[in-house]
Fold this protein.
Amino acid sequence: MKLVMKFGGTSVGEGKKIRNVAEIVKQNSNNSIVIVTSAMNGITDQLIGIVEKARKGESSNAVLDTLQKRHEQAIQDAMTKADVRSKVKQEVLGLFQRLKSIVESGTILKELTPRSKDYIISFGERLAAPILAGTLEDLGLRSIYLMGGEAGIITDDSFGEATPLMDITRQKVKNTLEPILAKGVVPVLTGFVGATQNGDISTIGRGGSDYSATIVGSCIDADEVWIWTDVDGLMTADPNIVKNCRLIPQISYAEAAEMVILGAKAMHPRALEPANERSIPIRIKNTFNPTANGTLISKDITVKKGEIVKGVATIKDVALINISGMSMVGMPGTAAKVFNILGSQGINVIMISQSISESNISLLVRRNQLAKGLNALELALLGRSSVKDISFEDDVSAIAVIGAGMKGTHGVASRLFGAVAKKNINVRMIAQGSSELNISFVVSENDCDETIRAVHDEFKLG
Ligand code: ADP
Ligand code: ASP
Ligand code: MG
């Protein structure tokens, strides 16, 4: 089989774990395998912290030293052969030199553009890739590592959330990887990282390594994409919130997309698209329990008898905007105006609800975009339109119940909101798309975990 295997930060977080990952690859090496690696866990966050400090002119030398030590230790623990170790160490030290010099310039100038930020945060994956490739070599496999752009992942220049240019990418990735695979060499690609057509390094958004894996899978027509992580698969709820959550053995792309968009498995919201388009099955598997089957994500929508809801997911860092005015009633174009204003500011609306009285529109946006959104709406609407009041709540979370079994099933909403009401929890906003795959609602952030547990119990998901 032709497989893409992506290893998450939790699976490559230290030398011994990298060794474990390399052993998993070796055990599967009767297949043609392309590897996509994340940064060691926590590194991307630390690099973002370094950028923020540099912009204030503050030094990050101490953090950089800790980062370097952690990678050197990983090399020590992952590999056994002195020559392989020393080759990888040279590469990693060279990368640190480059990283330190750009951070130093940014700190002096107190300025780092989004392009420079992407360059800096790409180092997480760029450091992990040679260590994993070296460990494979240490185990007797032939391997090379490639940056996303070198492998052929070409993006637009929306640094921070760059979009792959799929037609170009498809051709380039194929041209690069096929000859490598034909020689029996295992390519290790940096996830999360691409390059613009001008050759500038770009990143494709947080959790982007999963997305890189499905992009590559689609480009090389992989038989399957395996997303290796630290839990057995996609679970009925976040295991950190619901102790008795269960593994979902099979789920459709459409249902899984609803879950990951709502934050399940910290996956990039667009990660399933390339696989869905080409019907490439995705397996989510546990590096710490590799023989378990994991979750299979595929086209098939299977609804087991009696199964209504498959999972519950949540996004926590959101805020609600309420736009109201009696004279909005019967005024065509109000909603269009609102969405145009937010769209022109680059603000993504996560959830929308309007009552039939038309005197109120509620929107959900990311919390870090609230201030920008409110300012733009106030400026454009207050005193200049039928909108009379714009208010917000910034202490809310969105929850969604997901499952193809809800379609056409009566009484799901009453069970759902009945269970929430029994806990005395107030629901602030509700939305259901006509796909009936998902019912989403908003509660106060403090009530979020309890709400999830109540819903999980109500639908007997545990
Ligand atoms: P990786 O480092 O492999 O990319 P992430 O940390 O990005 O892993 O995502 C895996 C984590 O997502 C799990 O450890 C788990 O805590 C969390 N998670 C939240 N919701 C879910 C869910 N419904 N199913 C599985 N994992 C979930
Ligand atoms: N390292 C990146 C992040 O933390 C990409 C990823 O891990 O998927 O977002
Ligand atoms: Mg992740």
Summary: The radius of gyration is 24 Å. Residues 9, 38-39, 44, 124, 191-192, 206-210 surround aspartic acid (ligand 2) (CB under 6 Å). The chain has two domains: 2-298, 311-458. The chain is about 40% helix and 20% strand.
